[in-house]
Fold this sequence. Notes:
The structure is a single chain. The protein is mainly alpha-helical. The chain has one domain. Helices cover 70% and strands 6% of the residues. It has five helices and two strands, in the order H-H-H-H-E-E-H. The protein has a two-stranded antiparallel ribbon with strand order 1-2. Strand 1 (96-99) and strand 2 form a beta hairpin. The chain starts with a helix and ends with a helix.
Amino acid sequence: MNTVILQLASKYVRGLLIIFSVIMLLRGHNLPGGGFIGGLLAGLSIAFKGFAFTPAKAEKEMKVRPEYFMVFGLMLIFASLWPGLLIEGTFMQGVWFTIPFPFTEGYKVGTPFLFDIGVYFIVIGVTVLFLFSLTDKD
Length: 138
């Protein structure tokens, strides 16, 4: 589109999309939402830069290629599958750990949250790769 208003607004909207994507990821730890919705929001924040400027510029300014997001997400998902087998004796069994914080009961983190983070990164990679492939003119 290449309009000045859209380019200026994209800086702020992209930041808000990233903030909301992290909120959705953390909310999905115990409630509906999580990795898929958060990953879509984060992927769309990258795509929004391509809409405001050009897809080629957005792709050049990405520090990490979309394929690496997907590989990292798959590694996290794979890592979340094994603690249940090693600790509980069942493959893919949820295992929770408590991280102590002063003046609180602590924060419970489990393997389902690690799985959600993996889904988050995979969806970011797939969304960005899909949108960049739509504009590829080879």
